[in-house]
Design a protein that fits this description.
Elements lengths: L1 H23 L11 E5 L1 H9 L2 H19 L3 H23 L5 H5 L2 H11 L3 E4 L3 H6 L4 E4 L1 H5 L6 H12 L5 H9 L4
Parallel strand pairs: 1-2, 1-3
Helix pairs in contact: 2-4, 2-9, 3-4, 4-10
């Protein structure tokens, strides 16, 4: 019984001591820091991806396939290819001029994403226009990583100016951009 009492009092004393020290701020416990997230301008990434040689080659091949189908009288195939091109164009416009996600682009560059996360010491990347996710992560420290992501792309002087112009202007709100697109104005 004496041993149990000594252990309990000893344990209570340790707890009191730990509590005292933590109140006084003298604990050696590791501090819990907020999550660090990388934020980027998705419009810039969408534009940089659009002007890559690989993307332009793919786009040209799709256009040539649609023309070949039309020339061969393959109406259904031609219409399907044209619809796919229109959908891709619409998605590109919403990504470059508005706030549509660029998940498809980021998924195509996993090594670059991991390198950016490591270099910026962030746990994840979030578009600076993704208000919902940023609100969910409001306690997270935000680190701007657009430039780090842009290293994946080779932009000439004219393209760099367009990137600067995009950054200088706010995006068209997504619903407004969709409305403009339906009216043929985007």
């Amino acid at each position: 019984m004496k041993l149990t009492s000594r252990v309990l009092f000893g344990f209570a004393g340790v707890l009191i001591g730990l509590n005292f020290h933590s109140v006084a701020g003298e604990t050696n416990a590791p501090s819990v820091s907020a999550e660090r997230i990388g934020t980027y301008d998705s419009r810039v990434i969408a534009y940089a991806n659009f002007v890559t040689e690989a993307h332009l080659r793919k786009l040209n091949a799709e256009i040539q396939a649609a023309r070949a189908a039309q020339a061969a009288g393959q109406t259904n195939r031609c219409e399907a290819l044209r619809a796919a091109l229109k959908e891709e164009q619409d998605q590109g416009h919403l990504q470059v001029f508005s706030t549509a996600p660029v998940d498809d682009i980021l998924a195509s560059m996993p090594a670059r994403i991991e390198a950016v996360k490591k270099e910026a010491v962030v746990t994840r990347l979030v578009s600076k226009w993704d208000v919902k996710t940023l609100k969910e992560l409001k306690s997270a420290e935000q680190v701007e990583v657009t430039e780090l992501l842009l290293r994946e792309f080779t932009l000439d002087e004219k393209q760099q100016k367009i990137v600067a112009d995009l950054r200088a202007k706010p995006p068209v709100p997504l619903e407004k951009a969709k409305e403009l697109m339906r009216g043929g104005k985007l």
